[in-house]
């Protein structure tokens, strides 16, 4: 089988736009953003974490337009919210489908990963230059070495939360990492993942110069639980309380981020505002252990199929998203709830 040589992580980090921008203070900003997220998770900062943005980036220019809008809102609500941009470049699949900009940048299954790495890093660097912290779901552990330096909040998804390599990766990653409950809706698997990520591990990985090496982690103190629903939602107060009790029983900090999309909205973007309203009421009612909310949002409402003809840059090609005009009021709602809780 033919093989395509990939750049090393160090070569990718030094390449073009990404290297130039990273050399101008982005690294310091990322470190500060990670600390800010960790402060919210520990409740030393009373603000609410809000991770918001497209399901998966398919058009970097349009996604940067979205980032500009979000950066303005993040500044406006900065007294009450720590807003993080979903900058996801990989898309997990149950069976098949487009796997994201990084593994398939031409959206046609050709798998030009070398180009995807260059385009993906350029997008992440430019998005970080807006001043926003970036969120990323780590799907392929090898890819993590190409993007982790620009990420301020990470996620391990519902399909991989039981995977030992992903738990080891989370223990090594230098940013807070959220563990989503699995697709069945079972929370215990994710609680176990939080515990595992908090421990030290030795495991194979990729060094900056591209060599296979032994990575040794000291454990991630900021690993935490994300409720994303399953066959039934789990965002309501009773389910949040049950999840917090499970964390406490496992000797873990009782803190939870809740995803308003996926199983909690039945994958219907129109249901996300109702989920956010419920979560805002819990926050306003004084639940300090509900430390964050996730929202799938993009420039325009809905989604489109890759095979439907010329693609619109402003419309998701994966999960349906809320348009920006419907997202901005949700940020205001969450900001008011965080202010009331404080």
UniProtKB/TrEMBL annotation:
Top EC class of this enzyme: transferase
Cited SUPFAM superfamilies: Aldolase
Entries under InterPro entries matching the protein: Aldolase_TIM, DAHP1/KDSA, DAHP_synth_1
Pathway(s) annotated for this protein in UniProt: Metabolic intermediate biosynthesis; chorismate biosynthesis; chorismate from D-erythrose 4-phosphate and phosphoenolpyruvate: step 1/7
One GO molecular-function entry: 3-deoxy-7-phosphoheptulonate synthase activity
Keyword terms: Amino-acid biosynthesis, Aromatic amino acid biosynthesis, Transferase
EC identifiers of the protein: 2.5.1.54
Reaction equations catalysed: D-erythrose 4-phosphate + phosphoenolpyruvate + H2O = 7-phospho-2-dehydro-3-deoxy-D-arabino-heptonate + phosphate
Matches recorded under Pfam families: DAHP_synth_1
Residue span(s) of domain DAHP synthetase I/KDSA: 39-328
Family statement: Belongs to the class-I DAHP synthase family.
Role summary: Stereospecific condensation of phosphoenolpyruvate (PEP) and D-erythrose-4-phosphate (E4P) giving rise to 3-deoxy-D-arabino-heptulosonate-7-phosphate (DAHP).
Protein name: Phospho-2-dehydro-3-deoxyheptonate aldolase
């Amino acid at each position: 089988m033919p093989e395509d040589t990939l750049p090393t992580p160090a070569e990718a980090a030094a390449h073009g736009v990404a290297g130039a921008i990273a050399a101008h203070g982005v690294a310091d900003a990322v470190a500060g953003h990670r600390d800010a997220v960790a402060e919210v998770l520990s409740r030393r900062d009373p603000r609410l974490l809000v991770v918001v943005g497209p399901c998966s980036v398919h058009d970097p220019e349009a996604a940067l337009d979205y980032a500009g809008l979000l950066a303005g809102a993040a500044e406006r609500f900065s007294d009450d919210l720590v807003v993080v941009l979903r900058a996801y470049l990989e898309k997990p699949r149950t069976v098949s489908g487009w796997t994201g900009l990084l593994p398939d940048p031409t959206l046609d299954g050709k798998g030009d990963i070398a180009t995807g790495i260059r385009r993906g890093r350029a997008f992440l660097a430019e998005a970080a230059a807006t001043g926003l912290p970036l969120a990323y779901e780590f799907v392929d552990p090898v890819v993590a070495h190409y993007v982790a330096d620009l990420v301020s909040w990470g996620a391990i998804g519902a399909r991989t939360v039981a995977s030992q390599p992903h738990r080891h990766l989370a223990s090594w990653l230098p940013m807070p990492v959220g563990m989503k409950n699995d697709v069945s809706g079972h929370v215990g698997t994710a609680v176990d993942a939080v515990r595992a990520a908090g421990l030290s591990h030795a495991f194979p990985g990729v060094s900056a110069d591209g060599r296979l090496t032994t990575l040794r982690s000291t454990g991630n103190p900021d690993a935490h639980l994300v409720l994303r629903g399953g066959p039934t939602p789990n965002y309501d107060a009773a389910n949040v309380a049950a999840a917090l009790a499970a964390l406490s029983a496992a000797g873990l900090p009782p803190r939870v981020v809740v995803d308003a999309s996926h199983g909690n909205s039945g994958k219907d973007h129109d249901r996300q505002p109702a989920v956010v309203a419920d979560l805002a009421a819990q926050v306003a009612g004084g639940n300090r252990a509900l430390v964050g909310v996730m929202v799938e949002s993009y420039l325009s409402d809905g989604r489109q199929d890759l095979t439907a003809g010329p693609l619109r840059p402003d419309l998701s090609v994966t999960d349906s998203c809320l348009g920006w005009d419907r997202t901005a009021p949700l940020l205001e709602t969450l900001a008011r709830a965080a202010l009331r809780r404080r």
